[in-house]
Every structure is written in C-alpha cells, then in structure tokens.
Amino acid sequence: MNRITVLSLFISVLFFSCKKEKINLTYEVIHTDASIDINNIFCLNADTVYACGGKQGFGKILKSVDGGNTWNVLSENFNYNLYSIIIFPDGKGFAGADSSHVYKTVDGGLTWTLHFDWQGIPWQYHCPLRCVYFANADTGYFAGGHFFERGLIYYTTDGGNLWQTQGLEHELRAVCQTSEGIIAGGYGAMLANFKSDAFQFLNCERSFYTGLAAANPEKVYACTYDGGIYELNAHAEFTKTLHHPNNLISSREHYLCIDAFENIIIACGLSGIVSLSTDSGDSFENGYSLDRQRINAIKILNNSVALAAGDDGQFFRIKIH
Prior knowledge:
Layout: H1 3-18, E1 26-31, E2 37-43, E3 49-55, E4 58-64, E5 72-78, E6 82-87, E7 93-97, E8 102-105, E9 113-115, E10 129-134, E11 140-145, E12 151-156, E13 164-168, E14 172-177, E15 182-186, E16 189-193, E17 200-201, E18 209-216, E19 219-224, E20 229-233, E21 238-243, E22 255-261, E23 264-269, E24 273-277, E25 285-288, E26 295-300, E27 305-310, E28 314-319
Antiparallel strand pairs: 1-28, 2-3, 3-4, 4-5, 6-7, 7-8, 8-9, 10-11, 11-12, 12-13, 14-15, 15-16, 16-17, 18-19, 19-20, 20-21, 22-23, 23-24, 24-25, 26-27, 27-28
C-alpha cells in the first residue's frame, strides 16, 4: 500500500467519523427579547418555568407561565452573569452567579438581594455557581467552578442565612440527590456526601461530568463532555454505560446537560447534539438537531414535551412522542 492510498484511506475514515446523522425531532424555536445566553432552567411545574443567564457581565431572569411558549423578563438588575436558579412555591429562591455570588429572593423572583461571603470563600475559589439543588427548605447546595480549573461546593443548612465552603481542585458542573445523599460531578471527579460532614471523592472514570439527573431516588443519569451517558445507583456506583464516550476528537459528541423523567432520558450539548431515550436507556436516538445551536440546559416538562435553552435568548420546545 503506497503513501497516497494510505492518505486517501485516512481522509475517508476522518470524513465518515465527522459525519453525523440528524435526529428526527419535532420542535419549535422560541425567540425572546432577552439578548443573553440562557444558562439554566428551573421548572416549578409543567407550566411555570424560570430561566437565567447573562452576557458581558450582566444577568437576567425570565419566567414563563405557559410551559415555555412565551417568556417575560422577570428581573434584570444583576451585575453578574447568572448560571443557576431555584424558586420554591412560597416565593423564596436563590440564583448562582459569577465569582461565587448568590442572589436571594422572597417574592418569587421579582426582587433579589446579593449575598457574598468575602471571608468564607478564598479568592482562588471565586467561580461561576453552575448548578443548585435544595434537599429541603433549609439545606441547599451550589456546585461551581472555572473551566477545567478549581471548583466549589457552597452549601447552607439554615435556608441561606449562613453558608459553608468546600473548595476543590476540580471544576464542578452538577449536583443532585439520591436516597443515600447528595452527589456532585465535574471535571475528572464524582463526589458524594452520604450523611457526612464533607463531600468525598468516588472511585470512577476520570471523565468530565457535565450533567446529573435523578430519575428517582434510586437511579441517576450522568452525561459527559466526551459523549458518555451513564446510569448510577443511589450510592453513585456506575451500573450501566448507556452511550459510550467517543475518544476521536474528529467525531466527539459534547454533552452539556441531561434530564430524566419516568422512562425518558435526554442529553444535549454543542452544535445541537441530542441523545433521546424513551425506554429508560435501553435504546437511544442520537444526532444533531435544534438548529445545530449550543444547548446549555434541558428540562423535561412532562412525558411529551421537553424544553431546551441556548444562546442569544433562544428556547426550543421539543415534542418527545
């Protein structure tokens, strides 16, 4: 085999490894007046949905009362990009921002007060708070970090009056709860707090975990930046590989977010990549869709509709069945 033949074969392999199928999704693109990148979504219920984001150091919070069909800017007086949000039925809520800033609301997101712990968070752990989870009204966790750098667990046990810090050498992107405790994932690390004083590192593959979703208290799904989707049990032990990571840079699928509801799992990421399962991960449809736009957050509203958020104030309402 001469050099030209070898080169031609290499180019052919590279071409086909780059080529991706388009997943056949039915979806509606929803444009908003908010010229920001939407970083996260929180669903109070199938109709009431909040979203947060920012651009060039200024954040906004949006609200929908019709399942994401229409949106209004709820609040925009933020001097930092927003990355995570949660609002409870009583109107109390929190939002995580750049530089480990936390905003708090008590009126359903209309007004916010800024909390920042200058003494409790060392300067090297000032980072975007990328995900928030509250186990109950008092106990909540923010997970955050710089891109491929240091990370942070910032948590409260008294409803946000006082916060504690656990700094890490790994960026964190996700946090959720199982029946055994709280787990968090990020760059090269999976951690757990099973009724202890601090998060402990778990023995797992050193992937970049970008999303966690609890289908129920006994089962969690994780997605990774290099295209992996995994099933974990309540102890954060890996039980199944549902979608194998792709180690070829030319054909790598980059997932940024994941959600699960009943038997539905959906993961999304760069260039509109989507993996969808309607049978608890036994099979997946994979490919590019959603106008090939970057998807930063995904939430399943019910067993027939999911809502995805992207850059430039765009949302996508996805019909699942």
